[in-house]
Amino acid sequence: QNPKTSATVKQLVADGNARELQKYFGSRMEFGTAGLRAAMGAGISHMNDLTIIQTTQGFCRYLEKNFSDLKKRGVVIGFDARAHLSSGGSSKRFARLAANTFISQGVPVYLFSDITPTPFVPYTVTHLKLCAGIMITASHNPKQDNGYKVYWENGAQIISPHDKGISQAIEENQEPWPQAWDDKLIDSSLLLHDPYATVNKEYFKDIQKQCFHRNINKETNLKFVHTSVHGVGHKFVQLAFKAFDLSPPFAVPEQKDPDPEFPTVKYPNPEEGKGVLTLSFALAEKDGAKIILANDPDADRLAVAEKQESGEWKVFSGNELGALLGWWIFTCWKNNNRDTCAIKDVYMLSSTVSSKILRAIALKEGFHFEETLTGFKWMGNRAKQLMDQGKAVLFAFEEAIGYMCCPAVLDKDGVSAAVITAEMASFLATRNLSLSQQLKAVYDEYGFHITKASYFICHDPKVIQQLFDNLRNFDGKNTYPKSCGRFKVSGIRDLTTGYDSSQPDQKAVLPTSKSSQMITFTFANGGVATMRTSGTEPKIKYYSELCAPPGNSDVEQLKKELDELVNALEKHFFQPEKNNLQRKTE
């Protein structure tokens, strides 16, 4: 019933444009553990009023089946600032339609009255003991996209088999229920609640448990620049600084207010390198700020840059910031826990494609480190399991600039990560140390971990399948490569098929998934490289790392060795020319 998408379809029918219609209606968006992510527009392959109604109807029925007290506890729904004029779609409208679906079935809905960072939704699920949470966001995707992200009652993103159960329920509930389109009905409903004020108060109270140096924060002369890259983060990072008694960061004026057009950047993704930070660098130079904090548009990720003695800016990789935050959070814990026995219940987590630096710190300091599959859904769920067993999960991170620094949010959170980074930098400044100098000190103590990651773009699923099939049948059927250029392969783990050459029974320990591609190669020189497909973008990603024991300080040699390994990986395993792959460009 949306006049804009309806008109688009009628026009295509009138024009007899079967090819475009096939694009819109050929296949339904697939609901996976990441929920939905697609462009806004007409048809069942896009995010629009109808597909949001259908998805929510399915999700509602699935929750009714799983929770006898759903009508007592309810769900939370948050949204970012995305909007798409040509199709009339927006995150706010989708959130209201989703709320209407639940309320029509007698389910209480805690709908945020204004835009909110993604981490506030899992926080609300846990804090108000709700059955589930929905966040309408496409995070850092291009401006035409939107998404539907789902959290379970434990406050973590859903994992299998919930995705399959929800997907099936969507298939079974495609016809809109009566009044499904009339979202104005919710405004007068007693089942509609606004958690905005409560959650804003409680969240900032909870993250203060991670504030350990209030006096230093009050006195510091260190200046920070913050950008929310046209997303939701500005107000919330300002409030976080206030909660830690830090002076507010300078906000990049052109980027601080939400704008669904993202006019100043090509991609609204701080992971994409210095291009996204151009305006931040300019403001920092003008105001004499040493450190830049950049959130992605839904404020669940954080990028950090620091001005070096040379005048150059260093943008930390996700692995480097993970090393710094891991060191800092453990140091703060140690200073506040003199009981040496307590360390046996301390855990840190990272995903399997992230740096193993936390493993090195854990080995030396005596706490536990675990790795999970890629994605915070795995780390959030594992953290909850451990916390339920009485363990303390201090920190979890993934190389894609995602950090969980505070146990109140079982997902990545760019707001708490920003203010904790600011406190760490302020503390180090009292010791005349920069973040870069401290990072070197961490590597000196625990061993250098040099990483390099990138991706190729490929829009043809058949080519991607063929590329991975070739790796599994490299020298004849069912044989993996024995070498990559001059680098000898010493181990293979394939989490698509479940094969792991290092295990006695050759079966992988981590869960496997046939629906996504992921192979990890271990090399005789101590290098590790993983190739995998992305769940939300047309990319084949790779991650590589070279770990050296403490004491090996020839960093340049290590970097050179890793560069050569990556070049060999691209040339022999990706074969970009043969497979017509598009390289990542700035």
From TrEMBL:
It is found in: Cytoplasm. The keyword Cytoplasm applies. InterPro entries: A-D-PHexomutase_a/b/a-I, A-D-PHexomutase_a/b/a-I/II/III, A-D-PHexomutase_a/b/a-II, A-D-PHexomutase_a/b/a-III, A-D-PHexomutase_C_sf, A-D-PHexomutase_CS, Alpha-D-phosphohexomutase_SF. GO terms for molecular function: magnesium ion binding; phosphopentomutase activity. GO terms for biological process: glucose metabolic process; purine ribonucleoside salvage. Residues 29-175, 201-307, 318-446 form the Alpha-D-phosphohexomutase alpha/beta/alpha domain. Its cofactor is Mg(2+). Keywords: Carbohydrate metabolism, Cytoplasm, Glucose metabolism, Isomerase, Magnesium, Metal-binding, Phosphoprotein. GO terms for cellular component: cytoplasm; nucleus. It comes from the Eukaryota. The keyword Phosphoprotein applies. Belongs to the phosphohexose mutase family. This is PGM2 protein. It comes from Dromas ardeola. The lineage of its organism: Eukaryota, Metazoa, Chordata, Craniata, Vertebrata.
